[in-house]
Amino acid sequence: MKTIHILPYLGIAGGRLAAAAALLVLIHAQCAAQGYIEGVNISYEHLPMKIEAPGGDQNFSGNNMKLTAAVPIFLREDRSRYLIVGGSLEAFNFSGTHPDFEPNSVYSISPTLGYSTRVGRDVNLTGLLVPTLNSDYKAIKASDINFGVIFRASWKASEAITWKAILGYRQQFYGPQYVVLVGMDWKVTDRWMVFGDVPHSLTISYAASPKVNVGFNLFVQNSTYRLENQNRYFEYNSVNPGLFIERYITDSWAVRATAAYTLIRNMEVYNSYDKAKGFIDFYEMGNRADPLNPEVSSGLSFKVGLSYRIVPGKHK
């Protein structure tokens, strides 16, 4: 499920971090509670893919482009209350020959509207409304639009650590998805940071130099897209542990490269009436019919991203 934030005046661990960072990432792409605030993120992911079919292996690839952004509209001079306006765009296409894998391209548009308020010195509450239009964009109709709501509370326990609790609900084409996450943002030392929203994401980052960070990243994605053919839907559910390196090319712009191995890669097509009782994050409840396509093998994933960041202490 897997990802935005230009909110430089919300107190979280270590100073001023983004209120909506983990929340928007939770709906779209990546985690961002690592001591900086991302106003814009552009990423490209390449996934070598294989289906073992009776007629021979089908080797092809997935290519995923994403753009995410958000801005605050402050309601008070002390910036303790503000609206969040943003959204994301996604284009996910599959190149090569894959007769047993129906999707060729799917797309996503997801505007975001939220509200954030500070309660006391150390607690922040945020709510987001996230409508999503996910499909192959053939014969678009109103029923393609699904809605999600996310609520998040963060507590700054000390200058080094902040705890987070996230609850949410999303409509998916397979049925309801419930989001239950526990997060943390921990500045272990001046060089080491641990942050994420478990079990959705976890990052361990080491500052190798003032401009270079390296580390480990785990990210889970769960999305569904309606297909024109018989109103079927395509589900993408993956668990991706990997290693990353990133470099600041200016004080505000950073490039990150990630190599991951997808432990779970469920890329499955279902009939519109094949529903689950629900998902808790990426865990499925109930028994659905088997998917219509053969299993897509696990494998490598390569990702590169460019982001505009606000670093507390450097940007006032």
List the total number of helices.
Answer: 1
Which fold does the CATH topology refer to? Porin
- The CATH architecture comes to Beta Barrel
Strand content: over 45%
Q: Averaged pLDDT, please?
A: 86
Number of DSSP E strands: 21
In terms of per-residue confidence, which ranges show pLDDT below 50 for 5 or more consecutive residues?
1-34
- The termini sit apart by 34 Å
**What share of residues is helical?**
under 10%
Principal-axis shape equals globular
The structural domain count equals 1
Describe the biggest sheet? 14 strands, antiparallel, barrel
| Estimated structural class | mainly beta
Which strand order does the major sheet show?
3-4-5-6-7-10-11-12-13-14-15-16-17-21
Order of helices and strands: EEHEEEEEEEEEEEEEEEEEEE
The CATH C-level class name: Mainly Beta
Protein name: DUF6268 domain-containing protein
InterPro entries: DUF6268
Domain DUF6268: 67-308
What features would you describe in this structure?
This protein has one domain: Porin. It is built from one helix and 21 strands. It has one helix at residues 21-27; strands spanning 10-12, 15-17, 37-53, 56-74, 81-96, 105-119, 123-129, 132-135, 145-146, 148-156, 161-172, 175-187, 192-198, 201-207, 212-226, 233-248, 253-262, 264-270, 278-280, 283-285, 299-310. It has a 14-stranded antiparallel β-barrel. A hairpin with a 2-residue loop joins strand 11 (161-172) and strand 12 (175-187). It is globular. The relative contact order is 0.19. This is DUF6268 domain-containing protein. It holds the Pfam family DUF6268. It comes from Flavobacterium zepuense. InterPro entries: DUF6268.
